[in-house]
Specification:
Rossmann fold, 5-stranded parallel sheet, 10 helices, globular, 2 domains, Arc Repressor Mutant, subunit A, alpha/beta
Length: 221
């Protein structure tokens, strides 16, 4: 029997945590722990080793960005899904670069929330790649104060570079397959190899790298 998906909810508002817990529990997702700030979130992840963390960005003491850095730096299979009140919150880009697997607005529908948690757990990233692209295009500027992911694209083949370039524009696997006249299975293999060669967690980080290395320029297809 498949083990139930386990999640940690990190938000400084108790009512928000309660609401998310009820939504997840109704769909059979176990909430292993709750946290009111980043420190508690990191401790909860170490203690319970969940599949997914729903992480608020703005919390007291240690915010969601720093907590995400600590969780992803520790390794393991836990995925971080950022929750934010504002569309394109400037903290979110940094969280994605730190290893988060996606983000959602707090006014997300229950169905969308559950689908996002399950999708991120499966190793995919975000529900709408175009949201990632829009976010990265706005904030992917060469800021010397912000650490980049630093990846050498020289390890990729020309075909893998093509796949990464199109992936960064927000295309799905099916759309990539159609554009490149490949099967979806072949596209998935290329994406997996790109992530492996560049040491990336998922497609979101691949998008970030594509912009930070200049493979794709913000505002240009």
């Amino acid at each position: 029997m498949t083990e139930p998906l386990r999640a940690v909810i990190a938000d400084d508002q108790a009512l928000v945590r309660t609401g998310f817990r009820m939504i997840l529990a109704a769909d059979g997702i176990e909430v292993a722990a709750e946290a009111a700030d980043g420190d508690e979130a990191v401790a909860a992840v170490r203690r319970t080793r969940p599949d997914v963390v729903l992480m608020d960005v703005r919390m007291p003491r240690t915010d969601g960005l720093e907590a995400t850095r600590r969780i992803t730096a520790a390794g393991g299979d836990t995925r971080v899904l950022i929750l934010t009140t504002y569309d394109l919150d400037h903290y979110v880009y940094a969280a994605l670069a730190a290893g988060a697997s996606g983000f959602l607005l707090k006014d997300v529908t229950p169905e969308h929330l559950v689908a996002a948690v399950r999708l991120v757990r499966s190793g995919d990233a975000l529900l709408a790649p175009t949201i990632t692209r829009r976010l990265v295009e706005r904030f992917a500027r060469r800021d010397p104060a912000r650490p980049a992911l630093h990846r050498d694209l020289g390890e990729l083949t020309s075909r893998e570079l093509d796949v990464l370039r199109l992936l960064a524009t927000g295309l799905s696997n099916a759309e990539l397959a159609e554009r490149l006249s490949l099967s979806v299975a072949t596209v998935k293999t290329h994406v997996a190899r790109i992530l492996s060669k560049l040491g990336l967690r998922d497609r979101v980080q691949a998008v970030v790298v594509a912009y930070e290395t200049g493979l794709v320029a913000p505002g240009r297809p």
